Amino acid sequence: MFGLVFVLMVESIATSVIDKALEAVLRKVGEGRKLSTEDLVVLMLGLFREIRKDVAETNKRIDALYEMMSRNYEVLNSRVNEVNGSLIKKIDEINNRLVEKIDETNKRIDALYDLVGKNYEALNNRINAVNDALSRKIEETNKRIDETNKRIDNLYDLMGKIYEALIKGTTTQKQ
User: Fold this and answer.
1) 123 vs 132: CA distance, rounded Å
2) How many Cβ atoms are within 10 Å of 35's Cβ, its own excluded?
3) Side-chain half-sphere CA neighbours of 44 within 13 A
4) What is the model's pTM?
5) Distances from the Cα of 161 to the Cαs of 58, 155, 170, in angstroms?
6) How far apart are CA 106 and CA 79, in angstroms?
7) Burial, 44: exposed, middle or buried (Cβ in 10 Å; 0-12, 13-18, 19+)?
Protein backbone atom coordinates (compact mmCIF):
# COMPACT_ATOMS: atom_id res chain seq x y z
CA MET A 1 0.00 0.00 0.00
CA PHE A 2 2.81 2.39 0.93
CA GLY A 3 4.52 1.68 -2.41
CA LEU A 4 1.38 2.69 -4.33
CA VAL A 5 1.04 5.95 -2.38
CA PHE A 6 4.74 6.70 -3.00
CA VAL A 7 4.39 6.06 -6.75
CA LEU A 8 1.33 8.31 -6.93
CA MET A 9 3.18 11.08 -5.06
CA VAL A 10 6.24 10.85 -7.32
CA GLU A 11 4.01 10.86 -10.40
CA SER A 12 2.17 13.91 -9.12
CA ILE A 13 5.43 15.76 -8.41
CA ALA A 14 6.86 14.82 -11.83
CA THR A 15 3.69 16.08 -13.52
CA SER A 16 3.92 19.37 -11.65
CA VAL A 17 7.62 19.82 -12.55
CA ILE A 18 6.94 19.03 -16.23
CA ASP A 19 4.02 21.49 -16.28
CA LYS A 20 6.20 24.34 -14.91
CA ALA A 21 9.09 23.55 -17.27
CA LEU A 22 6.67 23.33 -20.20
CA GLU A 23 5.24 26.75 -19.37
CA ALA A 24 8.77 28.26 -19.39
CA VAL A 25 9.57 26.63 -22.77
CA LEU A 26 6.28 27.79 -24.26
CA ARG A 27 7.08 31.37 -23.13
CA LYS A 28 10.42 31.10 -24.97
CA VAL A 29 8.62 29.88 -28.10
CA GLY A 30 6.13 32.72 -27.75
CA GLU A 31 8.97 35.24 -27.50
CA GLY A 32 10.67 33.69 -30.53
CA ARG A 33 13.82 32.74 -28.70
CA LYS A 34 16.04 29.82 -29.64
CA LEU A 35 15.33 26.54 -27.73
CA SER A 36 18.07 24.55 -26.06
CA THR A 37 18.37 20.77 -26.06
CA GLU A 38 16.89 20.70 -22.55
CA ASP A 39 13.95 22.78 -23.77
CA LEU A 40 13.37 20.28 -26.61
CA VAL A 41 13.49 17.42 -24.08
CA VAL A 42 10.86 19.24 -21.95
CA LEU A 43 8.70 19.71 -25.07
CA MET A 44 9.11 16.00 -25.88
CA LEU A 45 8.18 15.06 -22.29
CA GLY A 46 5.08 17.27 -22.52
CA LEU A 47 4.23 15.74 -25.89
CA PHE A 48 4.71 12.23 -24.52
CA ARG A 49 2.52 13.08 -21.53
CA GLU A 50 -0.24 14.33 -23.85
CA ILE A 51 0.11 11.26 -26.03
CA ARG A 52 -0.04 9.10 -22.90
CA LYS A 53 -3.23 10.91 -21.80
CA ASP A 54 -4.73 10.43 -25.27
CA VAL A 55 -3.77 6.74 -25.24
CA ALA A 56 -5.23 6.36 -21.73
CA GLU A 57 -8.47 8.07 -22.82
CA THR A 58 -8.59 5.94 -25.98
CA ASN A 59 -8.03 2.82 -23.88
CA LYS A 60 -10.88 3.86 -21.58
CA ARG A 61 -13.14 4.43 -24.58
CA ILE A 62 -12.10 1.08 -26.02
CA ASP A 63 -12.79 -0.61 -22.68
CA ALA A 64 -16.19 1.08 -22.43
CA LEU A 65 -16.96 0.11 -26.02
CA TYR A 66 -15.81 -3.44 -25.33
CA GLU A 67 -18.04 -3.65 -22.26
CA MET A 68 -20.98 -2.24 -24.21
CA MET A 69 -20.34 -4.73 -27.03
CA SER A 70 -20.09 -7.54 -24.47
CA ARG A 71 -23.44 -6.55 -22.95
CA ASN A 72 -24.98 -6.23 -26.41
CA TYR A 73 -23.53 -9.60 -27.35
CA GLU A 74 -24.97 -11.18 -24.21
CA VAL A 75 -28.39 -9.60 -24.85
CA LEU A 76 -28.28 -10.62 -28.50
CA ASN A 77 -27.11 -14.12 -27.63
CA SER A 78 -29.90 -14.42 -25.09
CA ARG A 79 -32.43 -13.23 -27.70
CA VAL A 80 -31.04 -15.65 -30.28
CA ASN A 81 -31.40 -18.47 -27.75
CA GLU A 82 -35.00 -17.42 -27.05
CA VAL A 83 -35.84 -17.25 -30.75
CA ASN A 84 -34.04 -20.54 -31.36
CA GLY A 85 -36.01 -22.19 -28.55
CA SER A 86 -39.24 -20.73 -29.91
CA LEU A 87 -38.43 -21.92 -33.43
CA ILE A 88 -37.55 -25.39 -32.21
CA LYS A 89 -40.84 -25.52 -30.31
CA LYS A 90 -42.80 -24.39 -33.40
CA ILE A 91 -40.93 -26.85 -35.62
CA ASP A 92 -41.71 -29.64 -33.15
CA GLU A 93 -45.39 -28.63 -33.12
CA ILE A 94 -45.53 -28.57 -36.93
CA ASN A 95 -43.69 -31.88 -37.08
CA ASN A 96 -46.15 -33.44 -34.62
CA ARG A 97 -49.11 -32.13 -36.65
CA LEU A 98 -47.57 -33.50 -39.84
CA VAL A 99 -46.98 -36.87 -38.18
CA GLU A 100 -50.63 -36.91 -37.05
CA LYS A 101 -51.85 -36.02 -40.55
CA ILE A 102 -49.58 -38.65 -42.09
CA ASP A 103 -50.93 -41.22 -39.62
CA GLU A 104 -54.51 -40.23 -40.49
CA THR A 105 -53.72 -40.43 -44.20
CA ASN A 106 -52.08 -43.83 -43.72
CA LYS A 107 -55.18 -45.07 -41.87
CA ARG A 108 -57.40 -43.81 -44.69
CA ILE A 109 -55.15 -45.47 -47.26
CA ASP A 110 -55.25 -48.73 -45.29
CA ALA A 111 -59.06 -48.52 -45.07
CA LEU A 112 -59.29 -47.85 -48.82
CA TYR A 113 -56.89 -50.71 -49.50
CA ASP A 114 -59.05 -53.05 -47.38
CA LEU A 115 -62.22 -51.84 -49.15
CA VAL A 116 -60.64 -52.29 -52.58
CA GLY A 117 -59.49 -55.76 -51.53
CA LYS A 118 -63.00 -56.71 -50.40
CA ASN A 119 -64.52 -55.22 -53.55
CA TYR A 120 -61.95 -57.10 -55.60
CA GLU A 121 -62.89 -60.36 -53.92
CA ALA A 122 -66.62 -59.71 -54.37
CA LEU A 123 -66.12 -58.74 -58.01
CA ASN A 124 -63.89 -61.74 -58.61
CA ASN A 125 -66.54 -64.01 -57.06
CA ARG A 126 -69.23 -62.45 -59.28
CA ILE A 127 -67.04 -62.86 -62.36
CA ASN A 128 -66.44 -66.50 -61.46
CA ALA A 129 -70.19 -67.05 -60.92
CA VAL A 130 -71.04 -65.38 -64.26
CA ASN A 131 -68.28 -67.40 -65.94
CA ASP A 132 -69.63 -70.63 -64.46
CA ALA A 133 -73.20 -69.76 -65.49
CA LEU A 134 -72.03 -68.87 -69.02
CA SER A 135 -70.02 -72.09 -69.23
CA ARG A 136 -73.11 -74.12 -68.25
CA LYS A 137 -75.28 -72.28 -70.77
CA ILE A 138 -72.66 -72.75 -73.48
CA GLU A 139 -72.52 -76.47 -72.66
CA GLU A 140 -76.31 -76.68 -72.77
CA THR A 141 -76.37 -74.77 -76.06
CA ASN A 142 -73.66 -77.04 -77.48
CA LYS A 143 -75.66 -80.13 -76.42
CA ARG A 144 -78.76 -78.69 -78.08
CA ILE A 145 -76.76 -77.91 -81.21
CA ASP A 146 -75.38 -81.47 -81.18
CA GLU A 147 -78.92 -82.88 -80.75
CA THR A 148 -80.19 -80.60 -83.54
CA ASN A 149 -77.30 -81.70 -85.76
CA LYS A 150 -78.19 -85.35 -85.04
CA ARG A 151 -81.83 -84.69 -85.91
CA ILE A 152 -80.75 -82.91 -89.11
CA ASP A 153 -78.49 -85.86 -89.96
CA ASN A 154 -81.37 -88.25 -89.26
CA LEU A 155 -83.70 -86.13 -91.45
CA TYR A 156 -81.04 -86.01 -94.18
CA ASP A 157 -80.69 -89.81 -93.99
CA LEU A 158 -84.48 -90.19 -94.02
CA MET A 159 -84.77 -87.84 -96.99
CA GLY A 160 -82.03 -89.77 -98.74
CA LYS A 161 -83.94 -93.00 -98.17
CA ILE A 162 -87.19 -91.38 -99.32
CA TYR A 163 -85.42 -90.04 -102.41
CA GLU A 164 -84.01 -93.49 -103.16
CA ALA A 165 -87.39 -95.08 -102.63
CA LEU A 166 -89.01 -92.52 -104.93
CA ILE A 167 -86.37 -93.00 -107.60
CA LYS A 168 -86.67 -96.81 -107.36
CA GLY A 169 -90.47 -96.52 -107.41
CA THR A 170 -90.40 -94.30 -110.49
CA THR A 171 -87.91 -96.50 -112.32
CA THR A 172 -89.91 -99.63 -111.52
CA GLN A 173 -93.11 -98.03 -112.80
CA LYS A 174 -91.45 -96.99 -116.01
CA GLN A 175 -90.26 -100.40 -116.68
Assistant:
1) 14
2) 13
3) 7
4) 0.43
5) 144, 10, 14
6) 40
7) exposed
